[in-house]
Amino acid sequence: xxPRGRFAPSPTGPLHFGSLAAAVGSYLDARAHGGExxxxxxxxxxxxxxxxxxxxxxxxxxAHGFEWSGPVLRQTTRFDxxxxxxxxxxxxxxxxxxxxxxxxxxxxxxxxxxxxxxSAGKEPRAWRFRTGTEPVRFTDRLLGPFEEILEETHGDxxxxxxxxxxxxxxxVVADDEFQxxxxxxxxxxLLDSTARQVALQQALGYRRPxxxxxxxxxxxxxxKLSKQTLAPPLDDGRAAxxxxxxxxxxxxxxxxxxxxADLWQWALPNWSLDRVQRAxxxxxxPSETSSHDRTPL
Length: 297
Ligand code: GLU
Hints:
Helix content is 32%, strand content 18%. With 297 residues, the protein is an alpha/beta fold. The protein has 9 helices and 13 strands. The protein has 2 domains: 4-76 and 181-199 and 206-296, Rossmann fold, CATH 3.40.50.620; 79-160, Alpha-Beta Complex (Glutamyl-tRNA Synthetase, domain 3). Strands 1-2-3 form a 3-stranded parallel beta sheet, with helices on one face. It starts with a strand and ends in an 8-residue tail after the last strand. It binds glutamic acid (GLU).
């Protein structure tokens, strides 16, 4: 089977070094094994989408020498597919309407209020997935086996939000299936979503991709680099420097002085997952491991 990987950025801001490291890892994992690599713009959360961010991300990927297969898929073109997926879950008894407001639920796990049906006079606001008590199991290619009882951890999670927007968990699962993704390679911040995605795949009868969660890039103070922590955007004019730093971060220090094309030529035959460390490391000192390592459940 030819591997097919993907990079699926949300256009909430420009790429930063943390997203570059995830993109490089997923690209090399697919392409070093003769596979394909796709780009999907995850613009499903329309209120968080920033105008121009998707184009800036694609320009940045180009500047860093990424080559993707086929057209870029945008989630805003996929709403019909999400409607069908929700309909299948509803027919299978795995999705139910929920009338609870955020205030009623609070920050805690969903208590199952509307599981058995809406109380009289209540209007449906969101749709939720009916989680089970049986453990969901998957094995991460870097971090090993995980097991999670979703009813205890996340509870019945949202598929269609009360504000009318599709939830990331449903969209990503429908799109990975549609695009025939065999290998999901992404940052370890998304490890917490994987059991929910596997449960949805099982309920929908979809294929399950293999999962690989890469270490997170941390700021020198130990925080995850993200748009929320105001990580600086990549400078497309210094693509070779950023690409070498991303390779170093992933345990593949390249020879000094190479340009973008030569860095890829060097990295493709040299890529080996055994050299990628498990823990998050600080971008300024990739040899330093951190306590952000996740303990398998
Ligand atoms: N769109 C998600 C993000 O930017 C990534 C989703 C994924 O790789 O599954 O965090």
